[in-house]
Amino acid sequence: MSSPVPEEPERPQTASEILGAALGGAARKAGLDPAQSASTHTVVWSAMGGWRGIVESVLPSLAFVILFTLRPQPLILPLGVSVGLAAMFTIVRLVQKSPPSAALGGLIAAVAAAGLALWTGRGEDNFVPGLITNAVYGSAILVSALIGWSVIGLAAGFLMGEGTAWRTDRRKRRAFFWLGIAWAALFFARLAVQFPLYLAGDVTALGTFKLVMGLPLFAPLIAVTWLVVRALYPRAPSREDAAAA
């Protein structure tokens, strides 16, 4: 009798593979899956969460800016309305049993920012978490691109089922490098404009530029990233495509 062939132990995942799976999973949940045959408009709209996602993202900050501009004191009024709107959006999602992650994240950020502003008594401190987020994201994406492990590439590699094999393809490495530079530039551009306004204590201008440099810049960069990844991984024609031809 032949002895059974011992099973090979599973290879433990590397840190890059774990990170790629996490990034790719998050991108897929946001509707950014290059393996799917969706139009660029559909993908961008899905990434922003549609009209609901736009309202949930914009309205709390917009309410704070408007109310603070009209009546900066007491500070609790604009902060309370901002947090209240974020809480309302989260509750509505929970009641409707829709994914609450985006609204819940916005609520946590709003509560943290409002708490800091109330503690210091400075309206501009409501924007500190956003400034920190831009600095952290920009730095992480820039460093990952410079060392050849672009987080854009890690996410795309997971989504397209090739893991980190893209690093052996010079064309893909170059594309993911420049996509990483573009995303890092977006976050640092926000910092370059908004941080001086924070130091100057100009809350109205700071809030306005936060909104202007938010979704209006995020959407076109999502579109560019989607188009580049789809060009790097052309989709094989399906039977439906062949029949249509």
From TrEMBL:
Entry keyword set: Membrane, Transmembrane, Transmembrane helix
Q: Which InterPro entries match?
A: UCP010219 (IPR016566)
Q: Does the keyword Cell cycle apply?
A: no
Q: Which residues form a coiled coil?
A: none
Transmembrane regions listed in the UniProt entry: 76-95, 102-120, 140-163, 175-199, 211-229
Q: What is this protein called?
A: DUF3159 domain-containing protein
**Organism whose genome encodes this protein:** Microbacterium sufflavum
